[in-house]
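Human: I would love a firmer grasp of how sequence relates to backbone shape in proteins. Take your time, and here it is.
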Amino acid sequence: MIPGLTTRRRFADLSEQEILALAISSEEDDARIYRSYAERLRGEFAATAALFDGMAAEEDQHRQRLIDLHRTRFGEVIPLIRREHVAGHYARKPVWLARNLPLDTIRGEAAAMEQEAQRFYARAAQGTTDAATRKLLGDLAAAEAGHERKATDLAERHLTDDARSDEDRTARRQFILTWVQPGLAGLMDGSVSTLAPIFATAFATQDTWTTFLVGTAASVGAGISMGFTEAAHDDGVLSGRGSPLKRGLASGVMTTVGGMGHALPYLIPDFWTATIIAMVVVFVELWAIAWIQNRFMETPFLRAALQVVVGGALVFAAGALIGGG
């Protein structure tokens, strides 16, 4: 027999006592998850943290009711059985993932937790013919539905329109600082700074493969440099700009993408076809940069377009003149 295959039991094989014990441990785990969410959010999103504190307290109350029921029916000793011991039972994501989740995603995860538990118990209740077990599972499904309604009540109490609006603005600002700003800087650097070496090589050699290799080297090299620079120059603690790893990743990837956009056309063997397509790509890249600046940085579109187009045109002209000379 292969080791590990006997460590998980089917839900259908659990006794009523084991089902009750599983429910108790599940309620305890969910309370811990909600408290972890609350602790993670307390500094910046106090209203949502209060919401999760209230949900954790609700889980504690339900867990106590289940323990009281177990004590009445089966005695003091509760079997040790958890979600991971039962094949097919719903699982929870590791709590540490909450550190990397945006606010709306965490709120959605909480709602999904309650819905998932309710559906599981409801399906299990429909699949049993034992009256006592069916009633027990139905009661658990109803309890989970009650959790979801209570979560809605708590949200209305703690997440007023003003509180939600303030938290959403804070979350958007954090998203811009951590992802958009570094990514935009990378895209601008990759799109503009690689114009000169790529088009200088193109006009100097009129060899598409050589131009592609130079463009790839310039794009990847710039991406690595920008990524490390962004990650190393600010740890995010004082500036509040978020994880240096995330910012470095955004900056490095977008720098490479910006350069590769007009390097890839030189995989086409015909020089003028590749060059014309590369110019079109450059035009699209520069307008995309202007749109991002307007959309997220609230820079007037015409001013943003003028800045990037003029800058890009100057760099392109420099590369063409150097290569053509």
In short: The longest strand covers residues 9-10. Residues 161-193 form the longest helix (33 residues).
